[in-house]
Every structure is written in C-alpha cells, then in structure tokens.
Design brief:
Length: about 240
C-alpha cells in the first residue's frame, strides 16, 4: 500500500518501520515542519492516511482527508466526545475512518476481559471499581482514550456506576455511582492501564503494560491493510 503519515513523531516513526517491514511504501511524512507537502497528497499517490497527531488538530485533519477522498486510520485520542459529529461527517461525504483508543492487540484483548469482568462483578456490590493509567510526560490528553474506553465499558456493565469522573476529584471525593479514573504523566512511560475492584476483604485487578510502541504501530498498519472497500466510522476492535 501507499501510505501517507500525518504526524511524524515517535509514533509516526514507529509506524513507518512496521509499514516498511510489511512491504508498504511511505508516500509522504507530514509534520508541523512541512505542512505544505499536504498539497501534493491525492488518491493517485496515497491509498490511506495514518494520523497520529494532537486532539486539537484531529477535526481539521479529518476534514482535509475526507475532502480528497482518501480513507484514514487515526490513533489520536481526546476527540471521542465528538464521535457522533464525526460519524455524521463521514456519512455525508462517504468517508472512511478506522479509529481506536489504542491499536495494541493486547489492549484490545484487555477491553474484552474488562467487559466480561464487569458483567461478573455486577452482582457483587461490595466491590468498588476504579481505573488508573500512566503515560509519558509529553502526552497531551488525560485521562487517556484507552482509560476512558475502559471506564465506559465498566459503566455499561455495572448497574451501580452511572458516570465517569477524573479531574473533578481534585477537590472532592467521588459519589458511589461515579467511577474514578486516575492518571499520571511522567518520564518516558510508554503506556500502562489497570482496572481494579476493591472491597474490605480483597482486591482484583487486570492490567496491561506496553514495553515499546511497536504494538501500537503494528495495529495501526493492520488497520490500514484492512481499510480499503470499507465506509463510515469503524472501530479497530471490530476488525480484529
């Protein structure tokens, strides 16, 4: 495939390595320093755009890609509260976007375990749930999109939880129906996510720790390999 990378930081470079290793071609590497190169991107030289940028840039990037009729894979997080608007924009212009809070295969397995664990824990009201995550100090959003997805799954599976709170808890404790999501930004932490249930008797946890960025990069390339012929808003877990 001919792939254009939109965002050429640490993730963009990791995606490039995985894409080249799987026999693909990198058409353009676009970052803040060479935005003018975007004018050259078109369907004759690019089959798919893989975008890992900043939440503030995502909407403009999506509109730009839709306008030239190229499908896009995005690993940018922090925009999921606007997901219905994105879905409508794609439908109106027959665009295609594969997205995920996390493209790691291991994290997507964690998602499945998390959903099942919430179902199992639903009858056991003595256990309170929480989510925590840790990332490098350069990550722009917090909590992470992965942590928020885990929290959404828990709220969907636990009758006793109805909302998600994080930074709101700086000056108050959570209520019983609120699910607490904590986050840390420090050093070069690649990514760590943990779901825990705790009672006065014991605790139970499931967690995922990324050792490097290869898992995220490989998942993004796998998504790109499966995007042709599809339309609309597609979650990566559905492809897996």
């Amino acid at each position: 495939m001919k792939i254009t990378l939109l965002g050429y930081g640490k993730m963009g470079r990791a995606i490039e390595q995985e894409a080249l290793a799987r026999g693909h071609e990198i058409a353009f590497r676009i970052d803040k320093e060479n935005l003018a190169d975007w004018e050259q991107v078109n369907p004759t030289n690019t089959e798919v755009v893989i975008e890992f940028t900043h939440p503030d840039s995502f909407q403009a990037n999506l509109q730009r890609v839709i306008a030239i009729n190229i499908p896009m894979v995005t690993g940018t997080t922090g925009w999921h509260e606007e997901i219905e608007g994105v879905r409508s924009a794609l439908a109106a212009q027959k665009g295609t976007l594969i997205y995920s809070a996390n493209f790691s295969v291991g994290v997507n397995l964690l998602f499945k375990l998390n959903q099942r664990l919430a179902e199992l824990m639903n009858p056991h009201a003595q256990y309170d749930a929480y989510v925590e995550e840790r990332h490098h100090r350069y990550k722009a959003d917090g909590p992470s999109g992965t942590a928020y997805s885990l929290a959404q799954q828990i709220v969907a599976g636990l009758d006793r939880k109805s909302s998600i709170v994080s930074t709101e808890l700086q000056n108050r404790p959570p209520s019983e129906e609120e699910l607490s999501v904590g986050f840390i930004r420090s050093g070069e932490i690649i990514g760590y996510h943990k779901v825990s249930y705790t009672s006065d008797i014991d605790s139970l946890s499931i967690e995922h720790s990324a050792h490097n960025r290869r898992g995220f990069a490989l998942g993004a390339v796998i998504a790109a390999e499966n995007i042709l012929g599809k339309e609309g808003l597609i979650e990566f877990s559905d492809i897996l």
